[in-house]
């Protein structure tokens, strides 16, 4: 494919994406969260761990824009710092899923036969477990904490990316340019790395954006159950869990971090849907 053709394809993809208003909204939401995660120490008005029992359960006011929790900690500061941990856990877990899922999918899709059967049956075993139950089992075995949560969510996503990659590889493994690469003596690993992998990047990118939202929800569920990020580390789900006992007297403690989770999930879902539509080769506009 010539450079002019590639440039034309990129322009068409960009045009399709920019015409999707919901995708733009999702991109803006995701960009805001990324900005907050990077600059949280600079824009946070207070120390998220500092307690002041004389100011506990204060509703939103001029001093505490989003109020305080049951320990007098500033909720806005904890929300800002919680963004760092939410994006860290979700992005690292998705990266883990992509690396191993893509590797297994490439091998299964390219070689087929017994290798394909063995790999995909193992993936089916993992998919047979309810996703939250699988994550709970992994974290329970390894112990709570950020890195074990990342590992649990990453393992949950491996079969999904493996199946997606395998399907994309099967669709192109018998095309002329792959056959030509075999004919001139290229090894399987070179064909997979140079010829197959670049052609399956678009669906991987789409799934990564979509599953970022799922990863945030998964981390929130594990943390809410006490198996994820441990207090006093600022975490949206931990704020909900600790504030559920004060829903009547101080509803802002639990509802505000819940809104943060909802908006983050919405942003990544809208962005993923927009990327899927823009990268769809069947769309000609």
Explain this structure:
The chain has 285 residues and is mainly α. The protein has helices at 3-18, 21-43, 75-111, 113-128, 131-142, 146-172, 176-183, 188-196, 201-224, 236-243, 252-279. It has a single domain (3-279), classed as Orthogonal Bundle (MetI-like fold). The two termini are 20 Å apart. The mean pLDDT is 89.
Topology of this structure?
Blueprint: H1 3-18, H2 21-43, H3 75-111, H4 113-128, H5 131-142, H6 146-172, H7 176-183, H8 188-196, H9 201-224, H10 236-243, H11 252-279
Q: End-to-end span in angstroms?
A: 20 Å
Helix content: over 70%
User: Which architecture per CATH?
Assistant: Orthogonal Bundle
Can you summarize the main beta sheet? none
| N-to-C order of helices and strands | HHHHHHHHHHH
Structural class: mainly alpha
Shape by Cα distribution: elongated
| CATH topology category name | MetI-like fold
Poorly predicted spans: none
CATH class: Mainly Alpha
Tally of DSSP β-strands? 0
Radius of gyration: 22 Å
CATH superfamily: MetI-like
Mean pLDDT level? 89
Give the number of helices: 11
Sheet-strand content, in percent, reads under 5%
- The figure for the number of domains is 1
């Amino acid at each position: 494919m010539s450079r002019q053709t590639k440039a034309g394809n990129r322009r068409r993809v960009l045009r399709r994406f920019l015409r999707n208003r919901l995708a733009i909204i999702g991109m803006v939401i995701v960009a805001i969260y990324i900005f907050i995660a990077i600059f949280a120490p600079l824009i946070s008005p207070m120390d998220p761990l500092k307690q002041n029992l004389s100011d506990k359960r204060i509703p939103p006011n001029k001093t505490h824009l989003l109020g305080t929790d049951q320990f007098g900690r500033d909720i806005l500061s904890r929300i800002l710092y919680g963004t760092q941990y939410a994006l860290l856990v979700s992005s690292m877990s998705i990266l883990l899923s992509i690396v191993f899922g893509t590797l297994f999918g490439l091998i299964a899709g390219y070689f087929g036969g017994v290798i394909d059967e063995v790999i995909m049956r193992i993936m089916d075993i993992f998919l047979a477990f309810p996703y939250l139950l699988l994550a709970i089992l992994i974290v329970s075995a390894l112990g709570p904490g950020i890195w074990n949560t990342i590992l649990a969510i990453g393992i949950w996503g491996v079969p999904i990316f493996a199946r997606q990659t395998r399907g994309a590889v099967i669709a192109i493994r018998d095309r002329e340019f792959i056959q030509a690469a075999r004919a001139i003596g290229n090894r399987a690993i070179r064909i997979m790395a140079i010829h197959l992998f670049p052609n399956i990047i678009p669906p991987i990118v789409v799934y990564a954006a979509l599953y970022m939202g799922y990863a945030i929800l998964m981390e929130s569920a594990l943390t809410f159950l006490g198996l994820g990020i441990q207090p006093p580390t600022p975490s949206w789900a931990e704020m909900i869990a600790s504030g559920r006992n004060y829903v009547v007297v101080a509803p802002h403690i639990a509802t505000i971090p819940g809104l943060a989770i909802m908006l983050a999930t919405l942003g990544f879902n809208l962005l993923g849907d927009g990327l899927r539509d823009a990268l769809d080769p069947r769309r000609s506009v």
